[in-house]
Design brief:
By secondary structure, the chain is of the alpha+beta class. The protein has a domain of 86 residues. A 4-stranded mixed sheet has the order 1-2-4-3, with helices on one face. It is globular.
Length: 129
């Protein structure tokens, strides 16, 4: 009668992830899946003056961080940090339930409205000047 809980398992990449690999993970992840997408100090690791990374790796990390933030803004993941040491963090994306698809397509909405935005016609249906 007791509810069984499963421990959280965080997947950690063996090498730096690309933004495309991150998106692929987001697309197939089920709610609660966790992915460590960076380990270090993200803001310093992406800043040219402080980063020890070569330019290309730093640019890749900037894209990855931006994509993770975008996914969070879209409601696809939660972004969390776990301190692993002094000035060291594990940056983790936690998958959220996928948003439900819209009940009606944009095409259907445009056809129903005659293809005109509401503000483009007056009360008689003529195009407003």
């Amino acid at each position: 009668m007791f509810m069984q809980t499963n421990p959280f398992i965080t997947v950690r990449a063996r090498r730096p992830l690309t933004d495309i690999e991150f998106c692929a993970w987001v697309a197939q992840a089920v709610p609660g899946d966790r992915l460590e997408y960076h380990r270090g100090f993200l803001v310093l690791d992406t800043f040219p003056m402080f980063s020890h990374l070569p330019d290309q790796q730093r640019a890749d990390l900037v894209r990855l961080g931006s994509r993770a933030f975008w996914a969070a803004e879209q409601g696809l993941v939660h972004l969390v940090q776990e301190r692993t040491g002094p000035d060291q963090f594990a940056y983790i994306a936690v998958a959220r339930p996928k948003p439900k698809a819209a009940a009606i397509s944009l095409s259907a909405l445009l056809l129903a409205d005659g293809g005109q935005p509401d503000h483009a016609t007056d009360s008689s249906g003529r195009t407003a000047a």
